[in-house]
Amino acid sequence: MKTYYVKDLTSSLSLNLEPFAIAEVTKAEDKFGKAYLKLVLADKTGKVEAKIWNDKLVKIDPKLCVAGCIVLVTAKVEDYRGKAQLNIIDLKAADESKLDDFIESSIFDPDEMMAELMGFVAQIKHNSLRSILEEMFADQNFSRSYKFWPAAKSVHHDFRSGLLQHVLEMLNIAYSMKKFYPTVNYDIVTAGIILHDIGKFQEFDVQGIGTEYSKKGILVGHIPLGAMEFEKYAKGRLSEDLYYHMIHMILSHHGEIQYGSPVVPATVEAVMLAYIDRLSDKARCAVQAIEDITEDREFGNYNIWMENARFWRGGNYDELEDINAEIDTVAEEDTEIKLVTDKQGDQLIFTTENE
């Protein structure tokens, strides 16, 4: 039974035989040339970095220090560059039969997300395109992968059912634009969003809590793999124009050649897909960057995935929450709200007037 999750870890906390899963293991040497291990430990609330220094490493069974293992950790929680890090004293073997506590998952129910996704599939008016997607999801292996796969090994949506959540974020963003871009073919946008990352089912090997790149993933990459997978189902079933448009959606979805797309977006639908994809992943990165800021700090560290930005936790959130709460209270009293704000020093003043 776990006592502390990653989200609970604070500096100076001591852990005694606390279960965690090992997500990553890297060998390293200190400045004296002595070997040590850098680990990433995980549970369902997130990940934390850890180190096993040489003097402790020689006493620990090396068979335990493998990605995917669940171990009992005795350690001291320290602050390292503003983030919690574990200084591991000892590791013991743990029961690996139950993974629910150790796999970081989407906060949304995967069954409900799949039902929402199939609702989007049902909205596709083009019969052949819709039937291709329905056939793909009728395959149990494909459907199960779509339901549980992470969207990445790291960086964004790198958790159980992360790809499914990422796709639903994108679909909801896309449909919010229909009012302003009514001439866009939303059958193509919908299908493109649903299909754009299906190559990741072959790019990643996902076993237990571990996500690693497969041989196909390293040598080919998920973009060509996705186009090849779609081709297996769609070849000869669509008009030439629609077939190549869908292939183009998959191949161009990273937006730029420098980011891995072999071609750049050349249709309105492909442009929408590429930028909605980027919005979803960058928003998730930003949320994670803010969540990583410890309570004693206002700004995070330089974030290499976000143009080296140092994210700010924000100084006015509590004030805004107080204002919203007051507005809700006034509204419940059947008054007409006229909100007038005035900045006086560091205090935000507002008033309301009754009818």
Helix content: 25-40%
Number of strands: 11
**If you consult CATH, what is the topology of the largest domain?**
Hypothetical protein af1432
Record the strand order, biggest sheet. Answer: 1-2-3-5-4
The helix/strand series, from N terminus to C terminus, equals: EEEHEEHHHHHHEEHHHHEEHEE
Structure notes:
The structure is a single chain. This protein has 355 residues and is α+β, with helices and mostly antiparallel strands. It has 3 domains: 88 residues, Nucleic acid-binding proteins (OB fold (Dihydrolipoamide Acetyltransferase, E2P), Beta Barrel), CATH 2.40.50.140; 179 residues, Hypothetical protein af1432 (Orthogonal Bundle), CATH 1.10.3210; 35 residues, no CATH class. The strands form 4 sheets. A 5-stranded mixed beta barrel has the order 1-2-3-5-4. Strand 6 and strand 7 form a beta hairpin. Helix 2 crosses helix 5 and helix 9 runs antiparallel to helix 10. It starts with 13 loop residues before the first strand and ends with a strand.
Quick take:
This protein has helices at residues 54-57, 110-122, 127-138, 140-148, 162-175, 186-195, 200-203, 215-219, 222-234, 240-251, 268-291, 317-332; strands at residues 14-29, 35-43, 46-52, 70-80, 83-93, 204-207, 210-213, 299-303, 309-312, 340-344, 347-351.
